[in-house]
Design goal:
Elements: E1 3-8, H1 13-22, E2 28-34, H2 56-61, E3 65-68, H3 72-85, E4 88-91, H4 98-110, E5 112-115, H5 121-137, E6 142-149, H6 159-172, H7 176-179, E7 180-181, E8 196-202, E9 208-215, E10 220-227, H8 231-244, E11 250-252, H9 254-258
Parallel strand pairs: 1-2, 1-3, 3-4, 4-5, 5-11, 6-8, 7-8
Antiparallel strand pairs: 6-9, 9-10
Helix pairs in contact: 1-8, 3-4, 5-6
Bound molecules: nicotinamide-adenine-dinucleotide (NAD).
Residues 8-9, 11-15, 34-36, 39, 69-71, 74, 92-95, 116-119, 233 line the site of nicotinamide-adenine-dinucleotide.
């Protein structure tokens, strides 16, 4: 079956990448695109067959699954609308607050959805590897995550860095929120054992780089991923869209899609 896809924000960085990556695939077909009201793309062709609309209900009615790489406020609004349509979803927006996740969880009650801070195969492997490393090394090896992104990125730390840090905490068997350290400034004192630090660099056109470092006595382990093209996220999200339409209602992640 070919899944009919609605792309939100088709002129955004990820929106454009999704439209490009969908061309030529036979498991998905873009049948709708929704732009933010008042933006330039309204009424413009997105593909040869699709004209952008600003009406979420029209977009959701014309698809089997929508793909959302927008902003937390838009993601929340679309999840509420999609719950009324019982529409499947692939959500990649980062910087989501607990209240946003609660709305997304309500959609998952009535429709199958995939939510991931990163849709690349490599990063999802990294999540498994850091968890394994943290479990083997324990909190005696100081764990830190450093992420680098382009200068337009709004949220920090990146959703992927948080997912990596949470995977390390899971490997240590602790609650991430009890051990996290997102900024250091001034006299912060010696590093407490078990703390998990996350640092953010911003600059240029970097698509996304993440390194988890484990500092032991006299040695250091680093597990890194570097994205050089947004196409990896778009291809992963389209693969998730084709997969999720055949699933029962529930919230899935990329490890489910990849069968890892
Ligand atoms: P962007 O600013 O280039 O694009 C966002 C688009 O969303 C814009 O076109 C904007 O007009 C549109 N939008 C906002 N509100 C809307 C609304 N109410 N209706 C329709 N469209 C709306 O940003 P980007 O670089 O494409 O990133 C978007 C999000 O995806 C960010 O949260 C980013 O962190 C995340 N992201 C996730 C992954 C992943 O693998 N999960 C990968 C890359 C980016």
């Amino acid at each position: 079956m070919t899944a009919r896809v609605c792309v939100l924000g088709p002129s955004g960085r990820m929106g454009r990448s999704l439209i490009d990556a969908a061309a030529g695939r036979d498991d998905v077909r873009v049948t709708a695109a929704v732009v933010r009201p008042g933006t330039d793309g309204l009424g413009q062709p997105v593909t040869a067959e699709v004209i952008a609309t600003a009406d979420p209900d029209a977009g959701l009615a014309a698809c089997d699954v929508y793909i959302d790489f927008t902003s937390p406020a838009a993601t929340r609004g679309f999840a509420e609308a999609a719950a009324r349509h019982r529409r499947a979803a692939v959500i990649g927006t980062t910087g989501l607050a607990p209240g946003d996740h609660a709305v997304i969880d309500q959609l998952a009650q009535v429709a199958p959805i995939v939510v991931a801070a990163n849709f690349s195969l490599g990063v999802n492997l990294v999540l498994g590897l850091v968890r394994q490393a943290a479990r083997a090394l324990g909190p005696e090896w100081d764990a830190e995550v450093v992420e680098t992104h382009h200068h337009s990125k709004r949220d920090a730390p990146s959703g992927t860095a948080l997912a990596i840090a949470r995977a390390i905490a899971a490997g240590h068997g602790v609650d991430y929120d009890q051990v996290k350290r997102h900024t250091r400034d001034g006299d912060v004192g010696p590093r407490p054992r078990g703390e998990i630090g996350v640092s953010s660099l911003r600059g240029g056109d970097v698509v996304g780089e993440h390194t988890a470092s484990f500092f032991g006595a006299g040695e250091r382990l680093e597990i890194s991923h570097r994205a050089t093209s947004r196409a990896i996220f778009a291809v992963g999200a389209l693969r998730a869209a084709a997969w999720v339409v055949d699933q029962p209602p529930g919230r899935y992640d990329m490890l489910d899609v990849l069968g890892l």
